[in-house]
Design goal:
With 256 residues, the protein is mainly α. Helix content is 47%, strand content 8%. The protein is built from 10 helices and 4 strands; from the N terminus they run H-H-E-E-H-H-H-H-E-H-H-E-H-H. It has helices spanning 2-11, 50-86, 119-129, 131-140, 151-158, 166-171, 188-191, 194-198, 219-231, 235-251; strands at 94-100, 106-112, 176-178, 204-206. Strands 1-2 form a two-stranded antiparallel ribbon. A two-stranded parallel sheet has the order 3-4. A hairpin with a 5-residue loop joins strand 1 (94-100) and strand 2. The two termini are 31 Å apart. This is Bacterial sugar transferase domain-containing protein. It holds the Pfam family Bac_transf.
């Protein structure tokens, strides 16, 4: 918790500390808001007037809400089928993991469960006995050949169907359709100064990391992509990322 407080304090830059005309300084970071993107008063973000930025932020939240609700309605038969398949082993169909959201607020990031019921126990046993798995986990917070994943889990992860429950996170305002990759608190230690940017946006179901290699890119690149997304954000860029995501999902690029 002390890490979170320290990061958020450093991220809460006052307007007087920001100079939009400074070429040497990084682009001004945006303060937390209902949309996730509102620049501090008196500043400009990447040359965009504040009023334009606010309008785009409002459009982002409106689009998120409408698109998520429509998607849930249209995909409801698919959601039911996946839930039934996942529950065949006797476990719950949806898994919620605590992630860090806009402004440092913690929330339960939802996914269809793709792992065995006692996944935490299996992971601990693996990491205690397999040095290579331990090194991979410490480096990426992921395992490419994860023994915890079920047969159904492999399919829904490869097709990104496991992330569909996050549409509810979007409706509740905890996530956006497009944004930085949702991370756990411990991962923010790896973000360094990039954590200040991460805390200023809502995590996304998809984002630059998703369309730039997903799990095939190293961790430092993931952080750089999150920072780039926040500092160069526009509503138009969100639409482009959503379009590119369709191709990435269909090709199953970087998914495992």
């Amino acid at each position: 918790m002390s890490i979170m407080k320290s990061l958020f304090t450093r991220a809460a830059v006052s307007p007087s500390q920001l100079t939009a005309s400074s070429a040497a300084a990084p682009p001004p970071v945006m303060g937390p808001s209902s949309s996730g993107f509102i620049a501090p008063a008196g500043t400009q973000a990447q040359g965009a007037p504040l009023q334009s930025r606010q309008l785009q932020s409002g459009a982002k939240r409106t689009f998120d809400l409408v698109a998520a609700l429509i998607s849930i309605m249209l995909l409801s038969p698919v959601l039911v089928v996946i839930a039934l398949l996942v529950m065949r082993d006797g476990g719950p169909c949806v898994f919620g993991h605590t992630r860090i959201g806009n402004g440092g607020v913690k929330f339960r990031c939802l996914k269809f469960r793709s792992m065995v019921v006692d996944a935490d126990v299996v992971l601990k046993q693996l990491l205690d006995t397999d040095p290579q798995a331990r090194a991979e986990w410490d480096r990426d917070f992921k395992l490419k050949n994860d023994v915890r994943i079920t047969k159904v889990g492999h399919f829904i992860r490869r097709t990104s169907l496991d992330e569909l429950p996050q549409l509810w996170n979007v409706v509740r305002g905890e996530m956006s359709l497009v944004g930085p990759r949702p991370v756990i608190e411990k991962e923010l230690e790896r973000y360094g100064e990039g954590a200040e940017y991460y805390l200023k946006a809502k995590p996304g179901i998809t984002g630059l990391w998703q369309v730039s290699g997903r799990n095939d890119i190293d961790y430092a690149t993931r952080v750089a992509l999150d920072v780039s997304y926040v500092t160069n954000w526009s509503f138009g860029s969100d639409i482009l990322i959503l379009v590119r995501t369709i191709g990435v999902v269909l090709n199953k690029h970087g998914a495992y």
